[in-house]
Amino acid sequence: MVLRSHIHDQLAIPLQTIFSQPLSAHYPDPADLDGGRLLQSRGTSFEVQRFPLAEFIPAEPGFILFISDVTERLTEIGRATRQGLITAAGALAVGELLLPYLVRVLIGRLRWFTQTLPLLAQGEHRAARERLAVQQKAASFRDEIDLLYDTALTLSHQLEEASQALSAKNQELAEERDLMQGVLDAAQVLVVTQNRHGIIQMANKFAAQITGFATVKLQGRRFVDLIADVEAHQEVLSKLDDLYARGQRRADHEHDLVGRDGTRHPVMWVHTRLRGEHTDDAAVVSVGLDVSERVQAESRMRWLANHDTLTGLCNRHRFLEDLTRTYDEVARTRVTGALLLFDLDHFKEINDTSGHAAGDALLRMIGEELNFRARKSDVVARLGGDEFAVLLPNTDASGAETFAHQFNKRLAEAPFVYANKSYRIGASIGIALLPHHGSGVEEIMANADHAMYEAKRAGRGRTRVFVDYPPRSENVSKQSL
Predict the structure, then answer these.
(1) How far apart are CA 281 and CA 244, in angstroms?
(2) Do the Cβ atoms of 52 and 36 come closer than 8 Å?
């Protein structure tokens, strides 16, 4: 260690013993030695470092030089550096040799892994686990790829459970779908779905059966095209549009449905919104009930209310309505009409000897004969028992008598035969003219009945037009005649 204040004149001679040249030749400015400098001299390495005296002795202007022999240390550092380079080169050489092998092994395992993953997508979970188990290593040699294998195994179990749950749910949904389809196909109602533009999207078997179109043929057709009455199409479209425009939940109507072969079926429809509020895919389910039987029953009830079940002719109620309407018309127009009342001769004898079945057969035969001889404008009725009536509009007394005589002539020419027995039959017929023979329907009926009994009194099989006959004897009755 050397303590001096100026390198140029005070350090040059003493340091000659260490350095081959003055230190000032290398570092003219002493400040250059701050932080340490390495110098070579006579095969020896020195580290020179300057520290100002002010750091140790305040206000002292000089400095301290520390000169250390670092030759041996540098030699050791060089030797260590060379050894490290040799070691690094050896490691690099070994790495160059092992890297292809390691890469090939790792890539092989990854390739095995990527070939296994598609099995999970295909639902082959057990096969995927078996393949992954082959590649698994002992716990002490596990790496990140083994973590991938573990994750894949866990994923395979989860996917298998999810797949089983999904399969069970699909099975449940399939059963519900089959049940609903079975209900739709078994139900004796028409079920169709349509979009908001009225195009049929689905139809059940009963709809196909009623319309005569296959279900696939119904799809894509306009719903209103099934309505027989073309004039009702706009009404139906308006009701369907109300389901969307006005937010109604249901609409109903009853119209005839026309089938492929032109047959008509009265159907009561109920339309209900399915889904969507204002979207084009909003759909309507339309359920139609074939009310043909109801309509037929109603028609039958109306028919029974106005007709005789045995002969099919009008009954007394309906006949009196027609008689009243005709009487009002002839009273207004002064056109003559005729009322004929028929009472069968020997009916009680036939009914008593051959039974009620014979009597019913005779009544049906009389009804058919009267109906055959009547015009379309005429009204033929069975009033009850063996009494029949015929209303002949636009007919005078001569025409009425001709009708009566021809009818009795036909009965005389064709005896009634039942159970190998033959009966000669005829009818006592009374005629009253409208409006001449009464001021109302009741009086016309009474006067025609009076004329009929006068015909029966005259010998049966006879015809009489009403005149002012004297009152009938009380002992003269229909039963005795």
Answers:
(1) 12
(2) no
Average pLDDT over residues 252-258: 88
- Convert the pLDDT of each residue in 9-37 to its tens digit: 444 445 555 555 666 666 777 777 776 77
| CB within 8 Å of 224: residues ≥ 6 apart | 198, 233, 236, 237
Task: Answer whether the bond into residue 58 is a cis peptide, omega within 30°.
Answer: no
CATH numbers and ranges of domains, the chain: 2-69 (no CATH), 89-157 (no CATH), 187-290 (3.30.450.20), 307-465 (3.30.70.270)
d(CA 382, CA 378): 14
- Which pLDDT belongs to residue 62? 75
pLDDT of residue 480: 35
First vs last Cα of the chain: how many Å apart?
178
Report whether 243 contacts 271 (CB < 8 A). Answer: yes
How many alpha carbons fall within 13 Å on the CB side of residue 138?
Answer: 2
Q: What average pLDDT does the segment 332-359 reach?
A: 88
pTM, two decimal places: 0.51
Cβ proximity of 453 and 476 under 8 Å: yes
Radius of gyration over alpha carbons of the chain, in Å? Answer: 63
Give the torsion through C-alpha atoms of 167, 171, 172, 176, to 10 deg.
150
